[in-house]
Amino acid sequence: TRFGFNVPAALAMAVTGRDGSDPLAWLSTVSSIALLMLVAYFAYRFLGPWIAIGALAFLIASPIDLAMARRAWGDEMLACTAFAMLLALVLHRVRPRGHLWGPLALALGVFAVWQKETGLLVLAVACLGYVTAPGLETRERLLLVRWVALAGAVTLGGLAFASGGVGNLYDVLRGNTRSVARNEYAQQYQMGGPLYYLRGFTALHAIPIALGCVGLVRTLARRTQPATSSLPHLHDALRVLSWFVVALLGVALFYSPKNLRYVSVVYAPLYVLAAALLHEAAHALAARRWGTLRDLYVIAAVLLTMSAAHDYQVFDNYFVERAIPDLATPWFTGSPNR
Fold first, then answer.
1. What span, in angstroms and rounded, lies between the C-alpha atoms of 332 and 157?
2. How far does the chain reach from its first CA to its final CA, in angstroms?
3. Alpha-carbon radius of gyration of the chain
4. Nearest to 118 by CA among 10, 328, 261
C-alpha cells in the first residue's frame, strides 16, 4: 500500500544504478532539501523574510529532521509532500477561483496516502481546507465537494489496484494491525500514552517545538490579523498550519504504535509557528520600548545561532557518536517497555 514511496525508491535505484539502502537515503536527503525550499518560500511569501529566516534556523539544525534526512525511511519524503500540500492549500485559499492550486493540494494529499498511512490525515486536511476557502458561494462549494469525492475515489482505487483488489487491500490492512501485537520491537519501543511524544520532543528539540505549540495556541486564540504585520494572508496561513498540527498530533497522541518519525509532517509547520511567535514577541517588546526592533533582531539572531549549534550537538551525540538506529522515544529516555 506504500507504492507512493516504493515507486520513487525504485526510480532512485534505477537512476543511481545501485541497490540497497543508499539510494533511499539519498531520496530522503533530496526530500529534506526540497522541504527547506518549500518552507523558505511559504514563510517569505505569506509571513515575511524574518519569519522565514527563523523557521529555516530551526529546521536546518533540527536533530529530528537531520536524522530522517540521512536514513532510508519514507518519513522525510512524506513531510515534504505534506508541506507542499499546505503551500498549495494556502495559495488556493488566497485565490480560490480560476487556479489549479486547490486540485493540486488534493492531488498531493492523495499522493501522501499512497506513501504512508499518516497521509490519510494529510488528505483530510487538504479536503477540508479546500472546500472552506473564504469568499466562495454555496454553489461553488458544492462543486468543490465533487473534487473531494473524486480524490477519495482515486485514493481508494490506487490502493486497491496496488494491493491486487479490494479484498487483498482489506487483508493487508488487517494484517498490519495484527502484526503490531506480535512485533517485539514495536511493543518495547513504539507503545505508550500521550506522554510518549512529550518525552521524545523534550529529549531532542524541546525549545523550538514548545515555542511552536505556544505559537499554535496564540494563532488559534486570535480572531484577527496581527497588528504587527501588513501581509494580508499571514493570519490564514498560520491558522492552516495550526489546524494541520492539531489534527495530526490529536490523532497521533492516542494512536499506537508511536514513533517520533511517524509525525514527521508536523515539525516544519511547528518551526514556522515558533518563528512567527518570536517575530511577534520582538514587535511587542519594541512597542514597550525594551529595545529597538533592530537590536531585538540581533539578539534573536544570536540566540538562534546558539540554539542551532546546540541542536547539532544533540544530533551528533545521538545519531553519529551513539549511532541510535531509530526515532523511538525509549532510545533517548533509556526506558523501553517491558
1. 40
2. 31
3. 20
4. 261
How sure is the predictor about 237, in pLDDT bands with cuts at 50, 70 and 90? very high
Residues 69/28, Cβ–Cβ less than 8 Å: yes
Alpha carbon distance 110, 104 (integer Å): 10
Give residue 308's pLDDT band: very low, low, confident or very high (50, 70, 90).
very high
Q: DSSP secondary-structure letter at 262?
A: G
> Please, which residues have CB within 8 angstroms of residue 18's CB and are 6 or more apart in sequence?
none
Written as one letter, the residue type at 148 is V
* pTM of the full structure: 0.93
Q: What Cα–Cα distance (Å) separates residue 46 from each residue in 41, 197, 254?
A: 8, 30, 32
In the predicted model, what is the mean pLDDT of residues 127-156? 89
Cell of 60: 536546518
Q: Provide long-range contacts, Cβ within 8 A and 24+ apart, for 97-105.
A: 97/136, 97/140, 102/130, 102/133, 102/144, 102/147, 103/147, 105/129, 105/130
Q: How confident is the model at residue 230 (pLDDT cuts 50, 70, 90)?
A: low
CA distance 106 to 2: 18
Banded model confidence at residue 182, pLDDT cuts 50, 70, 90: confident
Q: Is the dihedral of CA 121, 125, 126, 128 positive or negative?
A: positive
Measure the CA–CA gap between 261 and 76, rounded to whole angstroms: 8
Rounded distance between C-alpha atoms, residue 126 and residue 32, angstroms:
21
For 19-78, give the DSSP string.
Answer: -SSHHHHHHHHHHHHHHHHHHHHHHHHHT-HHHHHHHHHHHHT-HHHHHHHTSS-SHHHH
DSSP-derived 3-state class of residue 322: coil
Q: pLDDT tens digits for 5-44?
A: 999 999 999 998 888 889 999 999 999 999 999 999 999 9
pLDDT score of 227: 61
Backbone angles phi, psi at 134, to 5 degrees: -70, 150
